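step: validate -> pass
step: tokenize input -> pass
step: predict -> running
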Amino acid sequence: MDVDEATRVRQSASVSTSPEVLRALASDPSVTVRVSLALNPALPEQVSAMLAEDTDLRVRTILSRRLSTLTPGLTDDDRQRVQRDAVANLTAMVAEAALRVRINIAEAVKDLDDGPRDIVLRLAHDPAVMVCEPVIRFSPLLTQEDLVTLIAAGPPPSTIMAVANRPKIDAAVSDAIVGTDDTAAIRALLANPTAQIREATLDALAAQSEVQTDWQDPLVNRPHLPLRAQRMLAEIVTGHLLERLAARDDLDPKVAQTVRAAVEQVQPTPPSDPPPDAEARLVRAHALALNQAGKLDDDAILEAMRRNENQTATAMLAVKADVRVAVVERACALRSAKGIVSLTWKAGLTVQTAVVLQVALAHLTPDLVLRPGRDGLFPLSEDEMTWQLAFLDVPDRSARAWRPRVLGA
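step: predict -> pass
step: emit ->
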């Protein structure tokens, strides 16, 4: 077969694999594949007969013990004992296997929710990062307590990093990672948006970020930043990080006022657009032509996004709002929901288009998108949108006479 060993192990363990493929796997040159096949509860009789004559004693032993659990008259305790023996055989095989084989086994079991837990635990403690990382990051069989125990064992930094990158770790695991004083792993933890971190822990890390400056970026972008951490970061961060902090929608009002004042004091030189390439010139020329013909509207921009032409949609928004393309790109880079909404408002487009632009251009997740209020109008006041435009370096020209309308009205 021309597929890799890890894939063949998955096929041999799956109850949905066709009998034809299982028969082929019974002759696989890899003993790991054949052992996995012997543990498959949906094994056809013909394949069982083939494995019963396997040249490897471990395959025959595991098969016979698995089949013995199907024998009438066995008590539940006997069945469990036989199953434990079978898993112990495979666990011993993992311990003795070469690195390449352990990597393949880890890839095969990393996302199984009903696999052998003893093997998963052994693989998680493996010193080779290529073996432990896929299991640590993805195996549903590892509990939060398992992860805390793993860190307490004093593993290599690569193992701690793998835990820090695992989705949905709880606060106890996060505290264990912070307790290692591994600065790289702590940064990865802060950058993990699904990791639960206690407020007190975040406050402490925010204070330390004055020295550990590489923590500042993930802290500024961290969801649900507590008030004390907001205040400390407002005093610590500078430059583009201060701008990102100011662009957050969940800042405490007093902190937001302080940060905005600090941003305004810096008064950076407006960045100039880089020389456009041929494609950018064509896209902008097309947007200008549509605008001059009175055809640059919500439908035109939404159609560009439906065709996945984000560069075209960006140029259209810039032309319609009468701003430089760099302004729109900056709002998108900052992932500023308020910035995109304000640019849409300035362009005279609908609030419904603002919602689509936040997702398609700024790549905001649904929980961060600003949506229209019950009145169907823009969710920000005109003063707030004017401030956001000034923050994006858009000059404050005469007020617009139009009023936001509902798409299709």
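step: describe -> Residues 68-74, 397-409 have pLDDT under 50 and may be disordered.
step: cleanup -> pass
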